[in-house]
């Protein structure tokens, strides 16, 4: 079979459980969690790849892959199903030697798929995570990597000093070359947080992965093992500063926040009006949304196929939802296919896919500006029975 | 049973709205083009071999349909084929459906496995389960099945083909005539046996006739040569054969029963994906009784209207009883009532456009008012 040589391919780490998303990832891998009304988290890195001219993407899956695999399909929504492009799902598999089994860590996942990468004989491999919301031109990062003649380039963003100890911190020289990596340092020396976006020379990464696999003590992780190892070996490693919007949506709170940051006339993260860098999603073949005369919608997204009869304020209503008459939805993320019946009140909540809030039920509550916000969450298909209450911060 | 689909695309004219496009590529219902209904009806009934016949102005249509991927028709075997006139072989474009079929003989004869043919026009829209129609056709043993709708003929509207039934048999048939209430209106949708159809096309054309309804169906039936089965469709059928009807039917989709029948009936209606963001409803917007597609930015007042993709309604604008196609920008403080805005129209701030229900104002594609 003929495989065209590629200058760059991307490997997307999509196998993590995302346990901090709790009930939302009980039956779904984190990258397949719905976002922003019509998207899923994985649409962002996948669309970034396509918009950056990367047409070959290996997607490493492991945890609850059914829905994710279905969603990716043949890669058609992102135009990755052509003769010389692919979105290849790469699950763990059995090999003749003992080096197979579940992916032990992020580095091991790529290690087990060295053969996949080798087919394309790439100069560079971009390693991405499936749990971040952002738009980024990876091509610009690769140019930067080339210009600096680096072996590895890591995208970084400036975080407030008081938060820096929550991140993997890259300490750099004035020319942005990295001299030290510290995972969650108690006393941070800098505020350059790693975004988990790496560009490697494939020859360098390939060698490091093989050696790392032979090290029985390694946990086979990019942050913990591969990056420190390359630094110790004296490779030139660069930090690529990125100041656009970027959000790790690994927790209930951050997922809620990132959704809310899409709203407003000038939102923190604007999806509209950037025709060259669209975010692509698998299409659902639903009609336009219907807004009844009894509806009132203020500062909200309403996606295709939804029917709104109630009041919606500062919320995301995803595809195929019904918001019943006399109901109120405020400060909430309503995922695809949710039904909210008449008279129900939903505040500060994330309602999982196809869940249902029955008549006059109450989900969540209101919070003052100084209160700690507690998000109520319903899992996929959950039903909040009529006239019952799901308290702030409760999960069903 | 292998079935071939044939879609006719230039079957009526809606004045300025079809100046530069076919009936098939006329936008409808917020995010669709009229041909999406025919394509979805065929595709969802398992038809995997579809010819699209166009006479002229088919650029926007080809752009929309592409390789048929959205309808599952991008196939190695069969799939979708555009059948446009060859300038070399005909000195004029097709005069009628039969002539266009005669020129598409290669397509008709290819795919020898196809036993039946479904012919659909692009002006009458429905969400119909064609498998039921096909089964009824086979069971009837007749030469041709005409899909009809009751309650359309009213003695005023000119109907392409109207049929009168008594005791399950056709007793009268009229073409291009304002038939009375006791007639059933053809939805311009037919099922025929393919071999029989090819023979009929050749015979009728040989006598220099070309009109499907008049020469093949009516003429054949009158001469006792063609047996006709009538299938009465119970669902919603939207006859978009004039600007007034197009406007009326567009706003009729706001009605829940009609909307659900058309979009959630037998199957989904597929269309070309545009990857717009969800519609944003701003702080001061007042939207009532509307259909809104994706990608809109709504800050003004909109009532009883259909908004297509990527429409901007600025603060203080008032839109009522309107059909607003893709990418319109409606300026601050403007007022629109009984208006159809074609694609890409800019309404300057403060502008006032008031049409009537019978004669909505049409603003041409790309214009600024």
The low-pLDDT segments of chain B are none
Strand adjacency order, main sheet of chain A: 5-4-1-6-11-8-12
Terminus-to-terminus distance of chain B: 53 Å
Strand fraction of chain B equals 25-35%
Helix content of chain B: 10-25%
What structural class do you assign from the helix and strand content of chain A? alpha/beta
**Quantity of strands of chain A, as a count:** 30
How many helices of chain B in DSSP terms?
Answer: 9
Average pLDDT of chain B, rounded to a whole number, is: 93
- Approximate shape of chain A: globular
Shape of chain B: globular
Percent range for β-strand residues of chain A: 25-35%
* Oligomeric grouping of the chains: heterodimer
N/C terminus separation of chain A: 50 Å
Task: Please tally the helical runs of chain A, counting DSSP H or I stretches of 4 or more residues.
Answer: 8
Radius of gyration from the alpha-carbon trace of chain B, in angstroms: 21 Å
Main beta sheet of chain B, described?
A: 9 strands, mixed
- In terms of structural class, how would the helical and strand content of chain B be classed? alpha/beta
């Amino acid at each position: 079979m003929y495989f065209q040589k590629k200058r760059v391919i991307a490997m997307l780490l999509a196998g993590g459980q995302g346990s901090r998303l709790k009930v939302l990832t009980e039956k779904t891998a984190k990258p397949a969690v719905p976002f922003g009304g019509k998207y899923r988290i994985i649409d962002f890195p996948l669309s970034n790849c396509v918009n950056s001219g990367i047409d070959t993407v290996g997607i490493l899956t492991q945890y609850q892959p059914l829905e994710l695999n279905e969603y990716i399909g043949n890669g058609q929504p992102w135009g990755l199903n052509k003769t010389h492009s692919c979105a290849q799902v790469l699950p763990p598999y059995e090999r003749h030697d003992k080096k197979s089994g579940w992916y032990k860590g992020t580095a091991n996942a790529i290690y087990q798929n060295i053969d996949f990468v080798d087919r394309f004989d790439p100069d560079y491999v971009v390693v991405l995570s499936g749990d971040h919301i952002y738009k980024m031109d990876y091509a610009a990062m690769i140019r930067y990597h080339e210009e600096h003649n680096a072996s590895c380039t890591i995208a970084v963003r400036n975080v407030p000093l008081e938060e820096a100890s929550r991140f993997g911190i890259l300490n750099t020289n004035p020319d942005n070359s990295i001299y030290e990596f510290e995972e969650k340092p108690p006393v941070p020396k800098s505020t350059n947080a790693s975004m988990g976006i790496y560009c490697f020379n494939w020859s360098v990464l390939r060698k490091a992965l093989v050696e790392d696999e032979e090290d029985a003590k390694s946990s086979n992780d990019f942050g913990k093992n591969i990056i420190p190892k390359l630094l110790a070996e004296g490779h030139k490693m660069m930090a690529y500063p990125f100041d656009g919007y970027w959000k790790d949506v690994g927790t209930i709170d951050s997922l809620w926040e990132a959704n809310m940051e899409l709203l407003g006339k000038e939102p923190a993260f604007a999806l509209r009006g950037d025709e060259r860098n669209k975010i692509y999603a698998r299409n659902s073949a639903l009609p336009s949304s219907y807004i009844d005369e009894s509806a009132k919608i203020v500062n909200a997204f309403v996606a295709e196929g939804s029917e709104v009869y109630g009041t919606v304020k500062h919320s995301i209503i995803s595809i195929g939802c019904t918001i019943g008459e006399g109901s109120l939805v405020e400060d909430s993320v309503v995922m695809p296919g949710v039904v909210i019946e008449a008279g129900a009140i939903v505040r500060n909540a994330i309602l999982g896919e196809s869940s249902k809030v029955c008549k006059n039920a109450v989900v969540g509550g209101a919070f003052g500006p100084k209160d700690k916000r507690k998000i109520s969450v319903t899992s996929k298909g959950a039903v909040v029975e009529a006239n019952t209450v799901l308290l702030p911060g409760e999960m069903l | 049973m292998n079935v071939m689909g044939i879609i006719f695309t230039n079957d009526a004219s809606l004045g300025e709205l079809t100046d530069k496009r076919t009936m098939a590529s006329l936008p409808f219902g917020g995010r669709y083009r009229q041909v999406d209904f025919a394509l979805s009806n065929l595709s969802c009934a398992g038809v995997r071999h579809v010819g699209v016949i166009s006479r002229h102005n088919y650029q926007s249509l080809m752009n929309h349909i592409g390789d048929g991927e959205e309808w599952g028709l991008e196939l190695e075997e069969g799939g979708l084929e555009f059948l446009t006139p060859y300038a070399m072989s005909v000195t004029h474009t097709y005069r009628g459906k039969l002539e266009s079929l005669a020129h598409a003989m290669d397509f008709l004869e290819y795919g020898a496995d196809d036993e039946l043919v479904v012919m659909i026009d692009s002006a009458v829209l429905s969400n119909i389960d064609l498998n039921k129609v096909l089964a009824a056709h086979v069971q009837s043993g007749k030469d041709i099945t005409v899909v009809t709708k009751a309650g359309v003929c009213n003695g005023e509207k000119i109907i392409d083909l109207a049929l009168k039934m008594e005791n399950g048999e056709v007793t009268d048939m009229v073409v291009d005539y304002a038939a009375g209430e006791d007639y059933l209106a053809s939805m311009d949708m037919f099922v025929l046996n393919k071999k029989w159809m090819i023979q009929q096309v050749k015979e009728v054309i040989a006598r220099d006739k070309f009109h499907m309804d008049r020469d093949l169906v009516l003429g054949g039936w009158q001469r006792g040569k063609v047996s006709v089965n009538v299938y009465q469709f119970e669902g919603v059928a939207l006859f978009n054969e004039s600007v007034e009807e197009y406007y009326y039917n567009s706003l009729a989709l706001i009605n829940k029963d009609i909307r659900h029948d058309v979009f959630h009936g037998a199957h989904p209606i597929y269309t070309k994906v545009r990857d717009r963001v969800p519609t944003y409803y701003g702080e001061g917007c007042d939207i009532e009784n509307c259909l809104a597609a994706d990608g809109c930015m709504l800050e003004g007042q909109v009532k009883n209207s259909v908004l297509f993709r990527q429409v901007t309604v600025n603060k203080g604008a008032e839109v009522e009883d309107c059909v607003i196609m893709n990418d319109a920008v409606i300026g601050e403080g403007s007022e629109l009532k009984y208006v159809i805005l074609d694609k890409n129209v800019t309404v300057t701030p403060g502008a006032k456009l008031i049409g009537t229900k019978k004669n909505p104002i049409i603003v041409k594609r790309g214009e600024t008012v």
